[in-house]
């Protein structure tokens, strides 16, 4: 039992670390009304392990803190990622649906953060389209590539005790 908890913790921490690194490395594309956050491709990882849920949430919080995001973004941007990860886990039996929840959560929540938190003047519905398009690139295109690439090795990479 103790080994399972340790593996869960290590998997969550590793996912959080990779999320932070991908966000920081791609920071030029990760913020604003037109954003492609490459780290969001990792939101498919709940397909493999529930440890990805807290890992993605913690990674998003740390990445937003590191990038100097405002408190509204740190809270609600991270909640969007958490909702997306929970949805991805709920849809894990349907591979092609796994990326949909993070796309939807971010497309709905992030534009409000941009508008009310950062003072972005673009209309919220337009930003829903631009943020949603970036999420499609990150989650659906890159995410599914990651999902299918890792699916062959899931027993090795995402093993439990």
Topology diagram in text:
Blueprint: H1 2-25, H2 27-30, H3 52-66, H4 71-90, H5 100-117, H6 124-151, H7 154-157
What does this structure look like?
The chain has 161 residues and is mostly helical. The protein has one domain (2-157): Arp2/3 complex 21 kDa subunit ARPC3. It is 70% helix and 0% strand. The chain has seven helices and no strands. It has helices spanning 2-25, 27-30, 52-66, 71-90, 100-117, 124-151, 154-157. Helix 1 (2-25) runs parallel beside helix 3 (52-66), helix 4 runs antiparallel to helix 5 (100-117) and helix 5 runs antiparallel to helix 6 (124-151). The longest helix has 28 residues, at 124-151. It is globular and about 50 Å long. The mean pLDDT is 91.
Brief digest:
With 161 residues, this protein is mainly alpha-helical. It has seven helices and no strands.
Using brief descriptors, characterize the structure shown.
161 residues; mainly alpha; Arp2/3 complex 21 kDa subunit ARPC3
How far is it from the N-terminal to the C-terminal residue, by CA? 8 Å
SS-derived structural category: mainly alpha
Mean pLDDT: 91
Main sheet summary? none
Question: What is the percent of helical residues?
Answer: over 70%
């Amino acid at each position: 039992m103790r080994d399972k908890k340790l593996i869960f913790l290590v998997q969550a921490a590793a996912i959080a670390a990779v999320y932070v690194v991908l966000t920081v490395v791609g920071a030029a594309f990760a913020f604003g009304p037109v954003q492609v956050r490459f780290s969001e491709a990792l939101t498919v990882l709940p397909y493999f392990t529930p440890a990805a849920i807290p890992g993605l949430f913690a990674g998003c919080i740390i990445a937003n803190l590191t990038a100097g995001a405002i408190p509204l973004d740190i809270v609600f941007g991270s909640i969007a990622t958490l909702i997306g990860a929970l949805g991805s886990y709920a849809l894990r039996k349907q591979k092609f649906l796994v990326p949909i929840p993070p796309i939807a959560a971010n497309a709905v929540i992030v534009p409000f953060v941009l508008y009310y938190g950062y003072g972005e003047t673009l209309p919220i519905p337009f930003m829903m389209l631009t943020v949603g398009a970036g999420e499609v690139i990150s989650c659906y295109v890159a995410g599914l590539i990651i999902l299918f690439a890792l699916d062959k090795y899931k027993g090795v990479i995402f093993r439990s005790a």
